Amino acid sequence: MSETLPAVAWHISTRSADSGANCVEAGPLADGSGRVAVRHSKTPEAATIVYTRDEWDAFVAGVKDGEFDF
């Protein structure tokens, strides 16, 4: 059984906006939990992944540190 997603203030990645193909949106859930939802903007009706605030903060820190660079 899937959870009903609260309202999300979606923001498209600036990197995705320029690529034309891989569009990622993320945004905080409006339920005050601090969780962040992520989805593919071209198929918003498809699956959405929800991260805790700690998970999201760890991901953002990794991006800033170059952990995911090729």
TrEMBL record:
**Domain of life, per lineage:** Bacteria
DUF397 domain residues? 9-64
| A Pfam family assignment | DUF397
Q: Which InterPro entries match?
A: DUF397 (IPR007278)
Quote the protein name from its UniProt record: Uncharacterized protein DUF397
Q: Which organism is it from?
A: Micromonospora pisi
